Amino acid sequence: MQEGDSEIAIRVRNLVVGFGRQIVLDNLSLDVRKGEILGLVGASGGGKSVLMRTIIGLIPRRSGEIEVMGQAIGGAHERSTQAAAGMWGILFQQGALFSSLTVRQNIQFPLRENLVASQELMDEIATAKLEMVGLLPEDGDKYPAELSGGMTKRVALARSLALDPAIVFLDEPTSGLDPIAAGDFDALIKTLQKTLGLTVFMVTHDLASLNTVCDRVAALADGKIVAIGPMSELLESEHPWVRAYFHGKRSQMLQPQTS
Amino acid sequence: MNSEPFLAATPSGDVLELRPAGSWIAANVAKLEALSDGVSAQLARARSVRLDIAGVSELDTLGAWLIEKLSRRAISAGRSAEIVGVADNYAGLIDEVRQVNRHNPPPLIAPSPIFAKLNDIGQSTVSAREDIAVFLQMLGSLFMAIVAVLRRPQTLRMTSLVYQLYRIGWQAIPIIALITFLIGAIIAQQGFFHFRRFGAESYTVDMVGILVLRELGVLIVAIMVAGRSGSAYTAELGSMKMREEIDALSTMGLDPIDVLILPRITALVIALPILTFIGSIAALYGGGIVAQFYGDMGPAIYIARVHDAITVAHFKVGILKAPFMALVIGIVACSEGLRVKGSAESLGKQTTTSVVKSIFLVIVLDGLFAVFFASIGM
C-alpha cells in the first residue's frame, strides 16, 4: 500500500486493453481522487469509453490492475465486480433506461434489486431523486420513449444515483443537449457532487463543462494519459495532441475562464 | 465504515428528543425503517420534537429522507420540529431533502375490475375497427404504388426485390421442403394405418394428393412464411421506425411504401406460390416414401395412382390461393412494423401481433376460398 491510498477512489495501473491486433489502451495508469470531478478527454475512437467500460468491468483487459475504493476489480461476471456495483452508478451516453419501465420504476430498479424496503419508502426515495435532478414528481409515470433528450439524461442520472454510490461514471453527459440544458446539467452535477460527496469520472468533449465543473482534466492520446491536472495546467501542456485539442479553432471560440 | 444504526428517544418535558446514531445509509434500510416506525407512538404524544443528528456517522439520501420524514410527521400533526447537530458535510444533503416530496401528484385511481373489463372490451372493439382501417389503408397505398410502378416500370427497385426474393424465397426452401415432406409422410402413414382396416389403402394416395394440393400445402407454407418472413418484416420495419430511419426516408422525398414495403410484399407474392409448389411436391414425395416402406406400394403404382387421383383443378385451387395469402401476410407484417413505438417492448408486442394476426387471416382466407371454389364447382 502506498501513501495516500485512502484518498484515491479509482487506481488504474499499467492497463492494457486491445481488440484483436489493435491495442486501444497501452500501459495506462490513472488515479482519480476521492471527491473530485475528473474530466477525461481524448480523440473520438481514442479509447475514452473503452477506459470507462474497462474500469466498470464491461470490457476484459489484457493486463494491468484496477482498484475502485481500494477493492480490486475483476471481469464483468466476477464476484468482486458485482460487489463493487453498489459503489458506483453509471450514466450511459444514450441513457440506457429500461424502455418497458416507467421513469419511477427505472429509478426504483436498483433499490428493489438490492434493498428490502417498503414500497412507500421506495416511492418516496424515487420521487426525491427525481426532484434532486430537477424533474417533477409527475414525470415519474412517463415512459422513457416519452422523454426529451435532456430529461432522459436527468432520469439516467437519477437512476445512477439511486443507491447513493461513492463514484459516478458519466459518459458524455452533455452531448446532444443545447448549451443552456448542458449548462444546467453541469451545474446539477456540481451540486450533487457537493451534496452527496461524490467522486465523478466524466468522459466529455464539452470544453465548457471541462472549464466549469471539472477539478482535474486527464487527456488520453495514443492509449496513454498524456497530461493530467487542473484545466490551467492542461492549457499550458506541450503535448502536440493536447495543444491541438485546447488551442484548436473551436476552443478559441471559448474564453478560457480558469480559476 | 458501516456501523449499527440507532435511534434513541428521550422525552424531556414536552419535548421529545430523538438522537439518531450510526450509519443511516441505504444498506441498513430494513433496520432504519423499523427504527423510525418504532418511535411513532412517542412521536404522537410529544408536543414538540428535536432531532439531534450529531451522532450519525454516515448519511446518504435515504437516511436523510427518513430523518426528514420523522420531522415532517411531527409537523403535519401540528407540532414543531427541528433538526440540530447537522455536521457541515451533511448540511447540503439535509437541505436538499427538505425540498423534496413537498407536492405529491394525486395517485392514479384504479378503476373497478368490472369497469376495467368493460373498458378492455370497448378498447379492443375500437382497435379492431382501427386494424381494418390500417389494413385497407396499406392495401390502398400499395395499390397506388403498384399503379405508379406500372406506369414507369424503371422505378421498381429491382435490387431490393431480388434481395428479398433471395431471403424469403431461396433461403426458405430447405426448411419448407423439410416440413412439408414430413407433413406428407405423416398424412400418408395415418391414411395407410386407418384405411387398411377397410381394405382401402389405395385411396390413401387420393387423400394425400387432394389434401396436399388443395389445402395443406399452401396452408402450411403460408403459416411457415408468416412465422419466418412476416415476423422478420415487422421486426425490421419496426426497428427502422424506432431509429427514425423511416422518417429519414420521407424527408429525402422518398415514399417508404415504394422503397421498403413494395419490394417486400412483391417478393412475398412471387415467392409464396413457388414455395407452395415446392412444398406440395415435397409432401407428395414424403407420401411416396411412406407408401413404399410402410404401405408396400411401389413408386410406379404410387405415381400412377397420383395421376388418376388428382387433376389440374386441384393444383390450381391450391396455387391460386398462394398470392392472396402472401398479400395478407405482407400487408399485416408491414403495417404492424410501422405501428412500432419507441420501446423495445412495443417491438416485441407488434411482432407477436403480426404473426398471430397473419396466421389467423390466412386461415380465414382459406375458409373463404373453400366456399368460393365450392360454389364455382372446382
Explain the overall architecture.
The complex is a heterodimer of chains A (259) and B (378). Chain A has ten helices and ten strands. Chain A is α/β, with parallel strands linked by helices and 259 residues long. Chain A has a single domain (5-253), classed as P-loop containing nucleotide triphosphate hydrolases (Rossmann fold), CATH 3.40.50.300. In chain A, α3 runs parallel beside α5 (149-160). With 378 residues, chain B is an alpha/beta fold. Chain B has two domains: 6-98, STAS domain (Transcription Regulator spoIIAA, 2-Layer Sandwich), CATH 3.30.750; 153-370, no CATH class. In chain B, α7 (173-195) packs parallel to α10 (256-293), α8 (203-242) packs antiparallel against α10 and α10 crosses α12 (312-338). At the A-B interface, α4 and α6 of A face α1, α3, α4 and α13 of B.
Kindly summarize this structure in a few lines.
Chain A is α/β, with parallel strands linked by helices and 259 residues long.
What is the H/E order of chain A?
A: EEEHEEHEHHHEHEHEEHHH
In the CATH hierarchy, what is the architecture of chain A at level 2? 3-Layer(aba) Sandwich
Look at the helices and sheets of chain A and give the structural class: alpha/beta
Counting DSSP H or I runs of 4 or more residues, the number of helices of chain B is 13
Q: What is the helical fraction of chain A, as a range of percent?
A: 25-40%
Main sheet makeup of chain B: 5 strands, mixed
Sheet with the most strands of chain A? 6 strands, mixed
What is the molecular shape of chain B?
elongated
Return the average pLDDT of chain B rounded to an integer.
88
Total count of strands of chain A: 10
- Sheet with the most strands: spatial strand order of chain A: 6-7-8-3-9-10
Describe the global form of chain A. globular
Tell me the strand percentage band of chain A: 15-25%
Give a count of the beta strands of chain B, DSSP E runs of length 2 or more: 5
Q: How much is the radius of gyration of chain A in Å?
A: 18 Å
